[in-house]
């Protein structure tokens, strides 16, 4: 779309005119020239609307606009320099010219600067006069239009984070079902399924639906999602695959290391890979084979889904499995359109508008993106004629579908105001598919000058927020993400919308790497640099018009010459070096007079140069996760225009430099470290920083000894702070009575504004809380409270009167014995003298306590005894209750009408469990751990909570089960006596919704409820009962069964496993009496468990044989410590899907036992093998040398073995070798044999004393020369060699 090469000229001109008017008051020496500049600009502005419309058809007009834009950029630079000089003189000269501070060009100002500026403005005017004269030949129509208003109103957002929200998707159920079926079907080796369709048709959305489908999730061991876009860089794709698996950033750039890392993660595993938005068929054809080669180590049943607009790409990767995504049916199309067009704040729904809307929908051709975008556009149009203009637009005559969609999107763009257009086009600097933070984007817009100047009525950030919301409202932004308080955090841009932004940006924006530097860079204003470890192309020295420079992909800017060319970028406004390889910035950065945004987050930077203090225009400085940062620059106080200082706890810097109180424009200061040095910044310097907003956390308040400084901080006037953190970091030895009074006074002085939403406090040494916490006067908007390690407090405020409070988290308050009760029924209110308190108390008794509370966490409160019922009506919305380490708690509330999750972690009394659970009826999750006196739970607890999904009882030694409702006894040891029984009866209990049940460490437990038809996962560990007695229920839905430490178990119930055909995981551990033929069915044949993938048998003293013939899907087998076992499991060699086996030879009968013969097609998938021996065994089974796919071999406990066999060198696929607990092992195979292991990358030796001595690297001992070539060698946990 070359016709869109010039954009935003009107907005740039408006900005320069505004600046010119402002500078007239500053630059008396050139006042006439600046006034003349203003007049010329206004004359040109009169014809801009017509010029921008005609540039589409007229190349000459487009060139004229290009020249105009360049001149206005130069004008902006000149006027910005005047403003910069104003700031410089204000700071460096001070108040000597207090009454003349804005008059730079008076006789007291530098004559050279005045002379230089006068000439530059004069030259600029001459250029503009020439451009102005040239406009006459175009005969533009003159108009006097004001900028289009910002579109406001409520918006409907589709909220997703990393996954799609299925309820938001219209009309793709059938497509999803068909694609899921295709993915799960048995097909070719590494089946590739291309999803082909127009841009905006919903290919990515469909792939997201399938990727997050429950069946798909359970079918694959590993799932990866990579957005490829138009740059198919194999190295980047590999890195993002690794990051998709590990969920951590992968910094390594070596292709060999990447291949090894990915191979380890995919080895013999079944994976699903989605390559989203693959559309460069030329690159794809060249590099597809390279990518495919890295995936061959995985299971052959793995699947790859490729979404693409290109039919050629589909033919390359999967001609037999192409899924053609069709357009949406008309009924679904109108649903999408009307939700946006007629939402709140939009036009009145009339029959005429609906009829026109349906005609517009027909023209969209069933493309969801076009429907959403047009729906958002029509919401801003109230008149019927405006709707008819869209219906009759000539764009519908375009025959090419992709071009038509782009033009539909451009309708929304054309409807934007001039500043909004500029803001939208700037989003082209972000990579496709990336998440864009809202605050970050607004700071970038601000730095580029798109938001004008702040005024008393509106801050630039507020205007930026309106712009962001408008772009969301117009559906140009999507996948909006919100924080826990409901505020928007960020968004994404659809690929086609991103394409539109790039096409409009034209020559102004460029992505540059080492392969793309041939173009003219002199007119580029926004540059994205993407080059690894190579020298920066010299052509970049000519890019002296750059206003934004953004480095991506961990570029090594320290060694590639970038810092040398930095002074050339004289017009730079934005410099983003986050994640770059960088330990220091050059002094020359201080020459960037126009710089407003600097980001060095996630770098190795140790300090900022002193010259940073000369960046008087700097608005945003981001220093997040700079772990080597030692100090902040003293010149920070000179940055009088700084609005956002983003730091965190990373690095060893301990305090802010003195003078930060001069930064009165500061809005973001998330971290404030209170230093212990006199030279540091005191909290008193916050006194006049009343524009602060967002989060503010104080650290190291133990260094604050002067309470007057805390009072001067004046937090109560900082109405924009919504999250306040207060932390003292004293050791227990440093906590003295002296600090009690200081901490109490400091906390009293730190009263926040009533807008506060989150209060976070740690290490408070006071014994009582301040009045603003006690009476809640400053907390009426509070949503969340966190108190940690406030160990000297003896009471907790009653927060029940706070109307919006959603979460309470109390952790480690050792002295609290009692809290709750009525509002006036606790010591904390004894000294409250506020007017109207008595009336408030009486009123509170008639209201609901904790009306909005959703979760409570009480942890490490060893002396808490009573939690009293606040009011007769309490906790109507509470869903989560977590209690940990409250052993003395006896009295609790009993009414929680909405509670879903009840979690008792270690050291909670059984009486508290009984009390809290007495009247519950809405539970879905119940977890009890470490209640030493709990003997039973009431049967009615299970009967009332019919939606209970998960039940876990752990480490409750006296717990027997669920007592009948007719039983009179209490369920605690104190009532029943140590040896009493609660006469457990479970026959009447029905748990239709229960899917997960764990009974662990409860030796007294005897049986589970009879009717649990939906139970899928069952774990019974450490019970004295017989399994047959425990499992009286007729279980038929199990997929997971773990039985451990059942000393009475002699055999498994015959029908337990045969009824559960979908069992996936079976683990039987430490059941010494288990004996006989393993798991026969009624016919005496081997049991058939076709779905079982993991099987563990460990610690059997009597078991003589195991039959695996019926377990055809097994992928993992573990057989250990079975002393009577006479042979390896029958059928082991027939497990075609077996990937990992751990096998032990531990009985005399197995001394001469061999490994099953290895022949095709057996053991084809086995890649990991662990062999556990005993002192009886002197050698390894020779058959394993024929395992062609073996990559990981572990040898453990072969104490009698002296030398590893020579044939070990035949396992050419071996990559990792682990040797452990072989006391007498001395010799590795010969050097020649070890060298045949060409794939071996890792050797680890543990607890093999003789072999360790002989593999000493320093002394070049007997065995070292055999292994010296192996990249990674560890001995007893120490890394001896690392060649990677």
Could you describe the 3D structure shown?
With 1284 residues, this protein is α/β, with parallel strands linked by helices. 27% of the residues lie in helices and 15% in strands. It has a 24-stranded mixed beta sheet. Strands 9-10-11-12-13-14-15 form a seven-stranded parallel beta sheet, covered by helices on one side. Helix 25 (771-774) links the parallel strand 19 (758-762) and strand 20.
Strand and helix layout:
Blueprint (H helix, E strand, L loop, with lengths): L8 H16 L6 H15 L2 H7 L4 H34 L18 H24 L38 H12 L6 E6 L6 H9 L2 H6 L2 E8 L4 H13 L8 H12 L4 E8 L2 H13 L9 E6 L2 H7 L5 E2 L5 H12 L9 H13 L4 H11 L5 H8 L9 H14 L3 H9 L9 E2 H11 L11 H14 L4 E5 L5 E5 L2 H11 L3 E4 L13 E4 L18 E4 L10 H4 L8 E3 L20 E3 L20 E3 L21 E3 L24 E3 L19 E7 L7 H6 L7 E8 L9 H13 L8 E5 L8 H4 L9 E5 L18 E5 L6 E3 L16 H8 L10 E5 L6 E3 L11 E5 L16 E4 L5 H8 L7 E5 L6 E3 H6 L5 E5 L6 E3 L9 H4 L19 E5 L16 E5 L5 H4 L9 E5 L9 H5 L6 E5 L24 E5 L17 E5 L19 E5 L23 E5 L19 E5 L19 E5 L10 H5 L6 E5 L2 H6 L9 H4 L4 E4 L2 E5 L2
Parallel strand pairs: 1-4, 1-5, 2-3, 3-4, 9-10, 10-11, 11-12, 12-13, 13-14, 14-15, 16-17, 17-18, 18-19, 19-20, 20-21, 21-23, 22-24, 23-25, 25-26, 26-27, 27-29, 28-30, 29-31, 31-32, 32-33, 33-34, 34-35, 35-36, 36-37, 37-38, 38-39, 39-40, 40-41, 41-42
Antiparallel strand pairs: 6-8, 7-8, 42-43
Helix pairs in contact: 1-2, 1-4, 2-5, 4-5, 6-7, 9-10, 11-12, 13-14, 13-15, 14-16, 15-17, 17-21, 19-20
């Amino acid at each position: 779309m070359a016709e869109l090469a010039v954009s935003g000229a009107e907005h740039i001109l408006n900005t320069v005119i505004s600046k010119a008017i402002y500078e007239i008051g500053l630059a008396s020496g050139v006042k006439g020239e600046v006034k003349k500049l203003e007049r010329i600009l206004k004359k040109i502005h009169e014809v801009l609307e017509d010029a921008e419309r005609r540039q589409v058809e007229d190349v000459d007009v487009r060139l004229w606009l290009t020249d105009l834009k360049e001149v206005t950029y130069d004008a902006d630079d000149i006027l910005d320099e005047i403003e910069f000089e104003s700031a410089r003189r204000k700071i460096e000269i001070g108040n000597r010219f207090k009454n003349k501070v804005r008059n730079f060009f008076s006789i007291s100002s530098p004559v050279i600067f005045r002379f230089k500026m006068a000439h530059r403005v004069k030259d600029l005017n001459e250029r503009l006069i020439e451009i102005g004269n040239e406009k006459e030949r175009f005969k533009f129509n003159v108009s006097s239009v004001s900028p289009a208003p910002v579109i406001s109103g409520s918006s409907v957002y589709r909220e997703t984070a990393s996954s799609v929200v299925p309820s938001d998707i219209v009309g793709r159920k059938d497509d999803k079902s068909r694609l899921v079926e295709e993915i799960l079907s048995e097909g070719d080796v590494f089946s590739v399924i291309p999803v082909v369709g127009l841009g905006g048709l919903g290919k990515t959305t469909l792939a997201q639906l399938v990727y997050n489908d429950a069946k798909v999730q359970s079918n694959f061991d590993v799932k990866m999602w990579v957005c490829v876009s138009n740059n198919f860089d194999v190295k980047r794709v590999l890195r993002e695959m690794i990051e998709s698996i590990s969920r951590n950033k992968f910094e390594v750039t070596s292709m060999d290391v990447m291949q090894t890392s990915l191979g380890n993660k995919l080895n013999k595993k079944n994976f699903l890979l989605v390559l989203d938005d693959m559309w460069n068929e030329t690159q794809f054809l060249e590099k597809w084979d390279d990518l495919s080669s890295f995936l061959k180590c995985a299971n052959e049943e793995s699947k790859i889904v490729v979404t693409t607009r290109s039919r050629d790409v589909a033919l390359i990767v999967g001609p037999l499995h192409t899924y053609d995504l069709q357009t949406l049916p008309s009924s679904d199309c109108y649903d999408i359109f009307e939700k946006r067009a007629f939402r709140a704040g939009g036009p009145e729904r009339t029959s005429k508008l609906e009829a026109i809307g349906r005609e517009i929908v027909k023209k969209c051709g069933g493309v969801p993106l076009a429907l959403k975008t047009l729906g958002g556009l029509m919401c801003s149009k109230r008149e019927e004629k405006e709707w008819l203009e869209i219906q009759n637009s000539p764009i519908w005559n375009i025959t090419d579908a992709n071009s038509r969609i782009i033009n539909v999107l451009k309708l929304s763009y054309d409807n934007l105001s001039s500043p909004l257009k500029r803001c939208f086009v700037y989003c082209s600097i972000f990579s496709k598919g990336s998440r864009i933070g809202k605050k970050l984007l607004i700071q970038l817009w601000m730095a580029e000058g798109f938001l004008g100047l702040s005024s008393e009525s509106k801050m630039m950030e507020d205007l930026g927020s309106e712009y962001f919301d408008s772009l969301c409202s117009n559906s140009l932004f999507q996948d909006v993400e919100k924080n826990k308080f409901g505020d928007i955090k960020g968004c994404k841009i659809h690929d086609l919308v991103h394409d539109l932004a790039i096409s409009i940006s034209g020559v102004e924006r460029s992505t540059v790497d080492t392969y793309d530097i041939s173009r003219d860079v002199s007119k580029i204003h926004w540059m994205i640099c993407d080059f690894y470890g190579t020298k920066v192309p010299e052509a970049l020295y000519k890019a002296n018009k750059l206003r934004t420079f953004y480095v991506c992909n961990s570029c090594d800017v320290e060694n590639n010459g970038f810092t040398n060319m930095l002074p050339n970028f004289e017009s730079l406004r934005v410099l983003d070096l986050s994640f770059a390889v960088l330990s220091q910035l050059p002094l020359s950065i201080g020459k960037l007079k126009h710089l407003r945004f600097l980001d060095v987050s996630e770098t190795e930077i140790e300090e900022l140069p002193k010259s940073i203090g000369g960046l008087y225009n700097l608005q945003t400085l981001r220093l997040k996760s700079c772990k080597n940062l030692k100090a902040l620059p003293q010149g920070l106080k000179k940055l009088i225009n700084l609005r956002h200082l983003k730091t965190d706890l990373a690095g060893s810097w301990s305090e802010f430099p003195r003078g930060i109180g001069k930064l009165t424009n500061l809005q973001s200061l998330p971290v404030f470290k209170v230093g212990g040095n006199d030279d540091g910044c005191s909290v008193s310097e916050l006194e006049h920083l009343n524009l602060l907003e967002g989060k503010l956390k104080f650290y190291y308040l133990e260094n604050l000894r002067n309470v007057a400084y805390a009072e001067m901080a004046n937090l109560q006037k900082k109405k924009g702070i919504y999250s306040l953190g207060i932390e003292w970091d004293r050791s227990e030895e440093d906590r003295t009575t002296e600090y009690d009074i200081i901490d109490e006074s400091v906390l009293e002085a730190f009263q926040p504004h009533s807008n506060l939403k989150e209060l976070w406090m740690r290490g408070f040494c006071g014994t009582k809380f301040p009045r603003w916490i006690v009476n809640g006067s400053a907390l009426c908007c509070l949503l969340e409270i966190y108190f940690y390690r406030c160990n000297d407090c003896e009471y907790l405020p009653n927060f029940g009167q706070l109307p919006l409070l959603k979460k309470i988290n109390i952790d480690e308050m050792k002295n609290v014995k009692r809290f709750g009760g009525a509002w006036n029924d606790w010591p904390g209110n004894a000294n409250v003298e506020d007017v109207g308190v008595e009336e408030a108390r009486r009123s509170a008794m008639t209201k609901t306590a904790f009306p909005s509370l959703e979760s409570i966490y009480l942890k490490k409160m060893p002396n808490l005894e009573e939690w009293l019922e606040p009011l007769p009506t309490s906790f109507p919305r509470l869903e989560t209750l977590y209690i940990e380490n409250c052993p003395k708690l006896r009295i609790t509330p009993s009414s929680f009408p909405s509670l879903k999750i009840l979690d008792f972690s270690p050291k909670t009394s059984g009486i508290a469990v009984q009390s809290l659970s007495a009247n519950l009826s809405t539970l879905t999750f119940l977890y009890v751990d470490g209640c030493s006196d709990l003997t039973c739970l009431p049967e009615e607890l299970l009967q009332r909570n019919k939606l209970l999904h998960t039940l876990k009882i752990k480490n409750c030694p006296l717990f027997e089960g669920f007592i009948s409702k007719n039983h009179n006894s209490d369920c605690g040891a104190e009532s029943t006596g140590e040896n009493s029984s609660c006469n457990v009866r479970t026959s009447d209990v029905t748990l239709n919704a229960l899917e997960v049940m764990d009974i662990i460490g409860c030796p007294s437990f005897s049986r589970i409820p009879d009717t649990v038809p939906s139970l899928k996962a069952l774990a019974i560990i450490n019970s004295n009962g017989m399994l047959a007695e425990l499992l009286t229920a007729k279980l038929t839905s199990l997929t997971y069964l773990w039985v451990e430490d059942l000393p009475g178990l002699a055999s498994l119930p015959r029908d337990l496993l045969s009824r559960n055909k979908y069992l996936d995981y079976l683990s039987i551990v430490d059941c010494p009496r288990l004996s006989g033929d393993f798991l026969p069915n009624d016919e005496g044949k081997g049991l058939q468990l076709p779905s079982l993938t993991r099987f563990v048998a460990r610690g059997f003293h009597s078991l003589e044989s195991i039959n695996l013939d019926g377990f055809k899907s097994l992928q993992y087998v573990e057989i250990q410590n079975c002393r009577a076992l006479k042979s390896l499991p029958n059928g082991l060699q027939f497990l075609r899907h077996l990937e990992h086996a751990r096998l032990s030879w531990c009985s005399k009968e197995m001394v001469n036992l061999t490994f099953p013969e290895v022949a095709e097609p057996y053991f084809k998938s086995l890649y990991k093998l662990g062999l556990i021996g005993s002192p009886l065994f002197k050698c390894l089974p020779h058959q394993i040398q024929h395992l062609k796919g073996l990559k990981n071999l572990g040898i453990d406990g072969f104490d009698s073995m002296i030398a590893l066999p020579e044939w070990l060198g035949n396992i050419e696929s071996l990559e990792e070798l682990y040797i452990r607990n072989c006391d007498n092992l001395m010799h590795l195979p010969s050097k020649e044999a070890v060298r045949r292991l060409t794939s071996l990358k890792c050797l680890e030796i543990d607890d093999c004393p003789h072999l360790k001595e002989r593999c000493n690297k320093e002394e070049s001992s007997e065995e070292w020369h055999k292994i010296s070539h192996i990249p990674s060698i560890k001995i007893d946990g120490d890394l001896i060699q690392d060649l990677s």
